[in-house]
Amino acid sequence: MSDSRGEAAEFDLGSLYAAREGERYALHTRYLNGQMVKVLKTLGYDAGFRRAQGPYLFDRNDERYLDLLSGWGVFALGRNHRGVRDALVSVLDGEMANLVQLEVSPLAGILAERLIARVPYLDKVFFANSGAESVEAAIKFARAATGRTRILHCDHSFHGLTFGALSLTADQNFRSGFGPLLPGCAEVPFDDLPALERALASREIAAFIVEPIQGKGVNLPSDGYLAAAAALCRKHGTLFVADEIQTGLGRTGKFLAVEHWGVEPDMVLLAKSLSGGQVPVGAVLARGWILDKTFNRMDRAVVHGSTFGKNDLAMAAGLATLDAIDREGLVQNAARQGERILTAFRDMAERYELVSAVRGKGLMIGIEFGAPRSLKLKAAWAMLESMSTGMFCQMVAVPLFKDHKILTQVAGHASRTIKLLPPLVVSDEDVDWTIRAFDEVIAEAHRVPGAVWSLGKTLAGHALRRETA
Question: Are residues 301 and 335 in the same domain?
């Protein structure tokens, strides 16, 4: 594009965004995923968010929302954290020699050093671009290190949607239509030590990969499960791999969730919040001998990698994130604020018959709904469940969004659990807002007939039409 003098006009992203922002849904329908746009409009989530700061989103009318989803856990520091932004600007202003490939980055070395300092029983780090890439790398490293090919995962697991990671993801809604998947992958029940031992006894298993707290449902293990599982893996020559992509970096009130149970895995997988919400990054922290078995000769120095895996922007974002976690006391804040929410939700479980369970650690929290006892509620619940399993959660999530300006979502396909993944920077005021909103919406859900149940019928009708279309 040229100006009136024939000179090239400077690219102005702000003006471009402002001019085209109103077309966001039309553009996505035409060029990206139109079904996602339909979902947003059906549920009323088409608010048109235009800016964000910390734990807050601001819509097209500049109304403020509390984000309890934090981009599926990416924005642990909140959005547009100043320290992360400054670090990224310093990389760009420094005109660093990024991604030379026939060279190594000092920033990657420093970030690896600082991660290992927090997980001192591990020795080396491999950097990727996402959680799914970290899972893919762990599969390859486990096979190279053990000489075995089979990988175990748990039911209800979620490890990603790339081909290998999907092969370790239990949800058939994600797997359907993409098979056959990676051979040699098998599922065992979560929190079932006898089943795990039977599978390991073949001595063919390269790795057992497990989420310390499962994201799909916020399922916690029994107190002794993870430690015993790690011991069984050692006994049978299998690597114990903790997928901390969602639970790590302070989310559960510890730097790693496995710290709650005193477990030391052979590999730890990180991603999501390590990026500071700005530049994608993933990491595999491993015992030194595992990576040494993979990169075991000079001609195998590049046997696994990624073009953008150690880019300076991602490494700077990771360093700034670790600094903010320490300087702002975010692990401690997650533990404190999470306990406040869990205590309030457990009180609601005592008062409201539709609340069947409350689970979580730190700021990874699930509130599960179940069949009520009273006659009117039981009939309404049964009717809704017959139309669409798990629809009740949307009856809670939608009024939370529309009436209370709180963004959250269900913990999985056809789930009866709403999951909270607030930014670790949430304040006392934010937690009060959360508790008050949930209490009011759940109280309203106990009134039959009522607005919540009318909404449920409408949403269930949409779901049935989609299934029969």
Answer: no
* Res 461: pLDDT: 60
Sign of the Cα torsion 455, 457, 459, 462 reads negative
Domain count, the chain: 2
pTM of the prediction?
Answer: 0.94
Structure tokens at 394: 């949307």
Instruction: Give the integer Cα–Cα distance in Å for 32 and 3.
Output: 32
My answer on whether 282 and 258 are in the same domain is: yes
Known active-site residue 12: no
- Residue 48 tokens read as 């048109």
Last residue of a domain, one of 327, 357, 390: 327
Residues 259-269 have pLDDT tens digits of 999 999 999 99
Q: What is the pLDDT of residues 279-307, one digit of tens each?
A: 999 999 999 999 999 999 999 999 999 99
**In angstroms, rounded to a whole number, what is the distance separating the alpha carbons of residues 9 and 7?**
6
Shared domain check, 313 and 337: no
Determine the Cα–Cα distance for residues 216 and 408; give it in Å rounded to an integer: 14
Tell me how crowded residue 21 is: count the other CB atoms within 10 A of its CB.
12
Q: Which of 243, 266, 312, 430 is catalytic?
A: 243
Residues 10, 158: Cα–Cα separation, whole Å: 44
128: its two tokens: 């990727």
Q: What are phi and psi of 49, to 5 degrees?
A: -65, 135
- The residue from 126, 158, 208, 369 that is catalytic is 158
Is-catalytic flag, 272?
yes
Give me 232's structure tokens. Answer: 């069984």
Torsion, CA 251, CA 257, CA 261, CA 264, rounded to 10: -150
Token pair for 105? 């980055």
What is the model's pLDDT at position 1?
Answer: 47
Q: How many Cα atoms are found within 13 Å in the side-chain-facing hemisphere of 461?
A: 6
The H-assigned helical ranges of 328-450 are: 330-351, 375-387, 391-404, 428-445
Query: Do 60 and 185 belong to one domain?
Result: no
pLDDT of the residue at 380: 84
Do 182 and 292 lie in one domain? The reply is yes
Task: Write down the mean pLDDT value for the chain.
Answer: 93
- Active-site hit among 216, 272, 361, 419: 272
**Residue range 86-132, pLDDT digits in tens:** 999 999 999 999 999 999 999 999 999 999 999 999 999 999 999 99
Is residue 122 included in any domain, yes or no?
yes
Q: Which of 4-13, 317-326, 333-342 has the lowest mean pLDDT?
A: 4-13
| 243 catalytic per annotation | yes
Q: Residue 363: which domain range?
A: 47-79+330-468
